[in-house]
Amino acid sequence: MRLSLKRIITCGVISTIMVGVLFFANYENSNASEQKVDRVISKMSMDEKISQMIIPAFRTWNEENVTDLNEAVEIREALQKHQYGGVLLYGSNITGNEQVTRLVHDLQENNMQMEGVSTHIPYFMPLDEEGGIVIRLTAGTRMTGNMAIGATKDATANSEKTGELLGEELAAAGFNVDYAPVIDVNNNPDNPVIGTRSFSDNPEKVMELGIAYADGLSRHNVIATYKHYPGHGDTCTDSHIGTPSIEKTYEELSEMELIPFKKAIESGADMIMTAHITYPKIDEQYTFGDGKTKGYYPATMSKKMVTDILRTDLGFEGVVVTDALEMDAIRTAGLVPGEMDSVEYRVNIAEKVINAGVDILLLPADMNSPEIVKFYDDYIAGIAEKVKDGEISEERIDESVKRILLLKEKYGIFDPSRNNKTTDDIDSLVEKNKAIIGSEEHHEIEMDMAREAITLVKNDKSILPLKNDKKSIFVLGRLENDEKTLSYVLKEIQKDGYIDKQSDVNIDFYYDSSAEEKLHYTDEMREKINSADVVLGFSYASGSSALDKEEAQYIALSSAIDDVHKAEGKFILISENLPYDAAIYQDADAIILAYMGSGLSIDPTDRFSDIGTTASNANIEAAIETVFGKNSPTGTLPVNIPKVGEDNNGKLYYEKDYLYNRGFRLNYSR
C-alpha cells in the first residue's frame, strides 16, 4: 500500500495540530489549577498553611487502638483544631474492610465540619501498603513483596500488576496515597530495614520495577510515593532506632542509589519520601544541639540533599514528604537545641526540615494523649513563630502549600464534593469493597506470582522434587505460631498425593520468643530428626544476625543438618526472607528461596474473611509446594549472594566474592 506525498503531508499537519491542541489544553488546565490554588492560599491563615504541611497519626488513645472515630471524641475534636494536610493510619487502626472504609470516610467528613477555616481542604489519606512484609490492610491481599517480584520472569508486568491490585484495594477503602514503592537498591547484605522490600541490588532493575509499580497504583488514582531518598539500601543501621550513615561521594551515589530516583522523576513522580540517613562525603558539617558535638544532618534535614540535589540537580518539582519524624534517627539524635521530645526540640527540627526544601512533616508525634494534642497546638504555633521571626520565610511555606494543593487538585482530592457522601453512599461503598479487598481473584493473582518467584539455587543429586515415597518427614519451623501455615500447606499437598498418606509428618520449632533461652532444640526433636528421611528447615535472614553463630537459628539449623546427615537423611533449606542465608547453610542438600517470612501465623483458610488479620503468606505455601513437586521453580536471583567467610575469631562475615550471581537459577530436570 502506498501513500501519496500529499496524504503524508496532510497526516503530518493533522498530527501536529492535535499535539498542539493537547498541549494548550493541558497548559490551560494547569494554569487554571495554579490560579485556583493561588486564590486559596491567599486566603489561608498561617496556622492553616502550616497545618496543611503536617500529617499526624493516632494509633491509640488511653492505650486502646483507635478504630472508630465516633468512639474517639478526643481524637475527633483534636483533628478539628487544625486543618492538617492528611492523616496516616496504621495496622492498629484497622480491624477489617468495612471498618476501615467507614473510618476513612469519617475522618474526611470530620475534616469538612471544621469551623473558622478559609477553605475546606480534604485530606491526603496515606497508608504504608507496600505488599510483602509491610502492609496495613490486614484483611486485604498481602502480595509477594518486592524482592519476590524481582525474582519472577516477567518482573515488570508483575510489578505493575502488584501496584494495580494494591491500588484497587486502597482506593476501595478511600485511601488516596500509598507510601510505596520502595526503590532502595539493596546492595548491602547486612541491611536490617530494607531487605526484601527492595526489588534488587541492580539499580536499573529497581528503577524499571519501581516505575511499573507506580504506574499500577495510578490506574486507581492512588498517588505513589517513591522512597527512601536518596537510598536506604546500603546501610547497616535501622533508622527507626539509630542514624545510618553512608560513606559515599555524590558521584558514587549517582552511579547506584540515585539512578531509580532520577528515572522516576523523569517519568513524572508526584511524591518522594526522604530517608533519615547522613552523607558525610557530600554534606556539610553542623554543630548539634549541645553546642559542642559536630556531625551531619540526615537527608531529611539537609538543604544540600533536598534542595540542591533532589530539586535542582534531579529536577524534582513534586511533593517531598519526610519519613516519620518520630523515628529515633531524628527524635533522639540531639541534632538541634532542646530536650528530647520537647516542643522546642521538635520545632527546631521542623525549621531545618522545612528550610531544607521538604513539604510535608510526617508524624512529628503519635497523637495518643491530651498532652500530645496540646503538643500539636504548640508545635504549629512554634513553627508560625519561626516564620514571624524570619527563621523560615513565608515564601518557603507558600511553596510547599502550593505543591501540596496542586497535587490534591491533580488527583481530584481538592474537591470537597467528592467526600460528601450519604450513609447510603457509604453502605454501598462498603458492599463494593467486600468484592475487592482481599478478593478471591486477588488471592489467585498473589498465589500465581508467589509460585513464579520461588528460586532453586542448590539441588545436590537432584533430590528435589521430593518423591512421595518419603516415610518420615520432619519440618523444623522457626516459631510455634508458624504452624498455621506450615500445617495447612502440608495437609493440602498430602491430600493432593504429593506426600504419601501413610507418611509420618512432624512439625516442631527451634525459636521460643517467650522464653529466656530462645533456642528450642530438644532431645525429642533430635530423635525425630535422626529417624527422618528428610528434614525441611526454615531460616530467616535479616541484617547481620543470620551470621551470628551464637543465635538460636544458627545453632538449631546447623545441628539439624549434622544430625540428619549422620543418620543418612537429607536436609532441605527454605529461606524465608533475605536469600543471603543460602551461603550460610551450604551443607544443606537443597536450597529454596521464598523471599518473605511474614504472615505465617495467619490461617490461610481465613484469607477471604473481611475482618481481622487474614493476609497470609503465599510465598511459603509456594515454596513448600515446590519442594514436593506441586510447583516447578522458575525464579531467578534478583541479588548477588556473597560467599561467607570465617575470621580468626570464628566469626562469620560476607566476602566480596559471590557464591551465586544475580540471575542464577536451577530448575527441575524431568
pLDDT below 50 for ≥5 consecutive residues: which ranges? 1-11
CATH class of the largest domain: Alpha Beta
Number of domains: 2
**N-end to C-end Cα span:** 50 Å
- CATH architectural arrangement of the largest domain: Alpha-Beta Barrel
Strand sequence of the main sheet, in spatial order? 12-17-16-15-13-14
CATH topology of the largest domain: TIM Barrel
Shape: globular
What percent strand? Answer: 5-15%
Treating each run of at least 4 consecutive H or I residues as one helix, how many helices?
A: 20
From the structure provided, what is the oligomeric state, counting identical versus distinct chains? Answer: single chain
Which percent range fits the helix content?
A: 25-40%
Q: What is the CATH H-level superfamily of the largest domain?
A: Glycoside hydrolase, family 3, N-terminal domain
Arithmetic mean pLDDT: 93
- Roughly how many Å is the radius of gyration? 27 Å
The assigned structural class equals alpha/beta
Largest sheet report:
6 strands, mixed
Give the number of DSSP strands.
19
